[in-house]
């Protein structure tokens, strides 16, 4: 993987071999017969290259996962038993638990950590979370669809022991054999959660990175996933660690402010569209922007979040981009606490990291 650079240039996943070309005609050929078209994409300013789509037995797929580079696996059958899930089936079977539903008046559902809200004076979240029964979510979804109020909902709930018997049976039928072997081969820690995401067409989860490995299993509808390698950090301007939007990019992809975020002009991403049965590997610390296609109906996804492998005892230099991000986060946290003025830490830290490791 390329070293971080101010120009934020990207290396191709799989050493340039796996993705094929990035020309519009190559992409057009790739989408043939897959049930979506580029007219359903939101327009952005930056260049992207395709994420390889491979069968799970393909040695190139194994190599990409081993190297912590993204890949779409087309035939894992990971969530085969859930491919019948739709809103009606879930309403009937998902049980009487509470579900976290986010409400927004824009298409962007920018994540914020509620525990960090007090750290920033006058922080005004652009979406709100409500706990509700699944049937209430469905009623509200139908109301919004009928009224066309412009309001949007996004259900994002960790699967837990309140789900009904049929969902448990479906869950037990997931391809645990394959995914457990991946977990063991990669030396990952425990499966921390499975997040169920039910989104309206056009919903967007803006670019952010997670500190976990992720197998992202698409069940219903199509999602466009744009990923950026950790070496694009300088182009994506994350909020400071103490901020509720920690790990999220400050750049508004719909209307980038190049004066504030000049390196965003150099950002290069990788993209794919996942549909039912596809599993996208989103490596830890890789940025991801995810949009449910316009006019594509409801989308349903279940992800599998794993703790990363323990950090090696012997650190090898040069450090990889994601290791620098991890170190930076730790220092930023410590400095934030020590200085009591976390606002000042971002630029200071950037300077330190550049001087220390570049
Ligand atoms: O599907 C989405 O909208 C966001 C999912 C996501 O960010 C994740 O699985 O890490």
TrEMBL record:
Q: Name one GO molecular function term.
A: peptidyl-histidine dioxygenase activity
* Compositionally biased region (Low complexity): 1-12
* A GO BP annotation: negative regulation of Notch signaling pathway
Cellular component terms per the entry's GO annotation: nucleus; perinuclear region of cytoplasm
Q: Entry's Pfam families?
A: Cupin_8
Q: Where is this region: Disordered?
A: 1-42
Q: What InterPro entries is this protein classified in?
A: Cupin_8 (IPR041667), FIH-1_dom_II (IPR027452), JmjC_dom (IPR003347), RmlC-like_jellyroll (IPR014710)
Give every JmjC domain span: 151-321
Composition bias, kind Gly residues: at what positions? 13-22
Name-wise, this protein is Hypoxia-inducible factor 1-alpha inhibitor
- Species of origin: Pogona vitticeps (central bearded dragon)
